[in-house]
Amino acid sequence: MIALRMRxxxxxxxxxxxxxxxTWLLALGLVVFLALPLAAILGKALTGDxxxxxxxxxxxxxxxxxxxxSAVSNSFAVSLTTTAIVLPLAYVFAAALTRTCxxxxxxxxxxxxxxxxxxxxxxxxxxxxxxxxQGMLKSWFPDGSIYGFWGIVIAEAFFTFPHALMILxxxxxxxxxxxxxxxxxxxxxxxxxxxxVTLPAxxxxxxxxxxxxxxxxxxxxxAPKVIGGQYNVLAVEAYKxxxxxxNFPKGAxxxxxxxxxxxxxxxxxxxxxxxQRALLTARAQPLxxxxxxxxxxLSLVTCxxxxxxxxxxxxxxxxxxxxxxxxxxLAPTLAHFDxxxxxxxxxxxxxxxxxxxxxxxxxxxxxxxGGAYLAEKMSVAPVARQxxxxxxxxxxxxxxxxxxxxxxxxxxxxxxxxxxxxxxxxALVICSVVHFYTTAHLTATTALxxxxxxxxxxxxxxxxxxxxxxxxxxxxxxxxxxxxxARYFFVSAMTTVSAVIFLYTPDTVLASVAVLNMDDAGxxxxxxxxxxxxxxxxxxxxLVFSLASWGLGRKTQAWxxx
Length: 562
Hints:
Helix content: over 70%
Strand content: under 5%
Order of helices and strands: HHHHHHHHHHHHEEHHHHHHHHHH
Radius of gyration: 25 Å
CATH topology: MetI-like fold
Shape: globular
Number of helices: 22
Number of domains: 1
CATH superfamily: MetI-like
Distance between the termini: 44 Å
């Protein structure tokens, strides 16, 4: 009996040691692949062209240039204008999906989320075909004015619309019917109820979506590069300094400056979340939409117009991939898919993206979910768990362009023991996992917090190792969340441009980068064809994940149904 107890105690200690070691390993991984690259970009910004410490000299030199302030004002103008356009459109669309009895809600919701499957380069290419010098609707924008401010704004509106919509749908899905009943009883009209009940309840969602749109636009690189023309913005300026002029210190300075609005938006959103209070109490009554003929009809017309605009941009890019010569010869052709005879990396670029997306989905899902499990459900290594929680939130405030620059300065240093990773597909996978870490971590944490902590307590009392509890209990219960995380990683890795634009080599060129390179070389139709393949691949994998979620859910989620 004594020997049996000793073996059980040794096994329990071994389980705790393994959990602590894995927690520290994940925390140190985030330090190495997130914190140190950010420190490297800051260090490069504080050095001169000769490599010596220069303090704020680079910042002062850039701040004294007229070109820099022009890029700053342009970036803010584009970001603010896009936010002002997207926010009301997304709000109306979200209200139609959540507060009306409009027909076809699932169809419109799916249509509104389609831009998530496309790289930010795609709307720029579509706008060139619609309103460019050879566009079918070029008379709408005379003198080629689509190349510049309004072209960037329209492309960014397409790119950011689903991000704002998802936040606002969540905000408007929760409402207390008693407040509306009280307002109606007091004689408040529709406008009065909107201003005093609906808008205050949704204000945090509105502010969060505005911050998200503003941040996504100001740090985006793809759309301004394709449709911006001579209209310079900060993200493109950083690209020109690093790729065009090989001026790494100035590129680092602009990267640090791009980090500031993202961090500021993150801090504001974090502070607002602390002030947000629960909208539904124990006595609340859910608001149920009731049929209203004119409201439902107006909502349907609005959604048709917005969804039609999104579909027109996506459809134009796809159609351009199969048309021989736009707009003179509209005969169908597959010649634009002959990527091996064009600049950009050939078919290898597309297959590299598939490899990257699959590796990111697999490695990212297990890393993020395992880290969230150790941080939330285990009581070992408290310092490592707190470090893991803190660093897991940081990527949300780091633009992909900044992270990519940090990887250049950190991994390209010959004195770094990890220098061998630079230029490899492994580095691209690590960068992609880190870049999209926060959203996946929050998803995993939300799923894990739904589970009672008694599972781990009972398992510990029975001397069951944590990995058995994780495999037999936690993993099956949280399988839908894991599939959502894997799908998110795959689609994000397929469509990202800014995070990988500085890290690829001729052997690891990606499909999204190939779109950019072919567009630069004048092969716009081929660029549209590659962007179309990215959308089709992302949509196909999403369908596979949906089928897998349905099939596996029947076995692992039967307990959720009565």
